[in-house]
Structure formats: C-alpha cells, structure tokens
Amino acid sequence: MSTTPRTARGTRTRARLVAAAEEVFGSLGYHDASIVKITEEAGVGLGTFYLYFEGKQAIFDEVVEDLNRRVRHAMTEAARAAGNRIDAERAGFRAFFRFTAEHPALYRIIRQAEFVSPGALRMHYTRIVNGYVEGLKAAREAGDIREMDVDTVAWALMGIGEMLGMRWVLWNKEADTEAGAVAEIPEAEFEEMMRFIERGMAPVAPGKGAGE
C-alpha cells in the first residue's frame, strides 16, 4: 500500500524514492535491497519513507507500475505520428529498445516480480498487451493489417520485443565495458525483425491465401 502526496514537495520526494528504489532493486535485487539503502540513495530519512510506502513490497510494486507507465508512454508517443500500423510498429519497437537501453533495470525488476510480486508482473504485461490489442483492432478495421486474432498477435509481438531487447540491448550493455555506452539492436537485425512482422501482418491481396 502507498500514499498519494498532498503537496508538490511530497510528490517530488515520493518520486525520488521511486527512482532510488528502481536503482537499488535493479542493481542489488529485491532480497538484497533494503529500505535503508533506498532512503540513502534517495537522500531522505528513514521516517520519510513510511509517509509514502508501507514497506519494501509496496515500493517494489510502485517501481514496476512506474516503469510500465513510462515504457508504454514512450512507445505510444513514438507511434502516434505513424501513417499506418507497420510504421507504428517500427516506431514503437525503436522506442521500446531505446527505453530498455536507458533503463536496463526494467528487465531485471520485471523478472524479479515473477517471484516477488506475481500480480505486478501480470499487470505489467497485461497493460502492454491491452494497448497493443486496441491498436491492432483499429488497424484491422482500417484494412492496414490482415484478419487475425489480435490478442494472440499482441502477445507474440510483445514476446518479440522482450527477447530481442534482452539479446541485443540488455546483454550487450552488460558486456560493454565502455562507461556510458548505449547498447542498440543492430540495424540489420532490427530490419529482419520488421520484415518478419510485416509479412505476418500485411493485408492479404484479393484472390490470395494468407500464406501467399
């Protein structure tokens, strides 16, 4: 359980705690993290923590929700100006990979949630899929994509982004010794991914089957 601040100063303090918790959970893991370490990272007193959060579990859930909110916003904003669904996928995936490069804790924290807070894990993936489903439904009705089970396709698209982001962004970043280096998915691999997606989603030409 967490408490909503009543003042602008309280809002800023709470945000500092969430940012600090993201750093601590991402670097140490849930079990080695502590409220003391989070407050030290945030530069606030221990008593201040309990003004906003009931305990470590509560702030962990808030971190998951905050990361989810930000990554969905980044993807939505990037895709907003796209002229069709394929272009929206391209822009959305680029935004997702950029976000994960800048916030590698996203992967680490979401994987911890499987054991620490299964409800937060389910919330994270479900909210992303729900946004996908709405966009795919609109694209299907507009004829931008073929007839398909949009729920299945939404989960599949999320899986593509998750695994390729882990392979090319997270693992490359962890292996890179250059300070401040930003890991990116190689352009050739990004384009191969997009060709796969486009061929699977493209409208079927009149008189042809889905596999042609």
If you had to describe this structure to a student in words, what would you say it looks like?
With 212 residues, the chain is an all-alpha fold. It folds into two domains: 54 residues, Arc Repressor Mutant, subunit A (Orthogonal Bundle); 145 residues, Orthogonal Bundle (Tetracycline Repressor, domain 2), CATH 1.10.357. It contains nine helices and no strands. The N and C termini lie far apart (53 Å). Keywords: DNA-binding, Transcription, Transcription regulation.
Give the gist of this structure.
The chain is built from nine helices and no strands.
What gap, in angstroms, lies between the N and C termini? 53 Å
Secondary-structure-derived class: mainly alpha
Percentage of β-strand residues: under 5%
What quaternary form is this?
A: single chain
Radius of gyration over C-alpha positions, nearest whole angstrom = 20 Å
CATH class assignment of the largest domain: Mainly Alpha
Q: How would you sum up the global shape?
A: elongated
Number of domains: 2
**Mean pLDDT reading:** 90
Second rung of CATH, namely the architecture of the largest domain: Orthogonal Bundle
Order of helices and strands: HHHHHHHHH
* Count of DSSP-assigned helices: 9
Helix content: over 70%
The name CATH uses for the topology of the largest domain is: Tetracycline Repressor, domain 2
Number of strands: 0
Extract low-pLDDT stretches: none
Keywords: DNA-binding, Transcription, Transcription regulation
Protein name: TetR/AcrR family transcriptional regulator
GO molecular function: DNA-binding transcription factor activity; transcription cis-regulatory region binding
DNA-binding region: 34-53
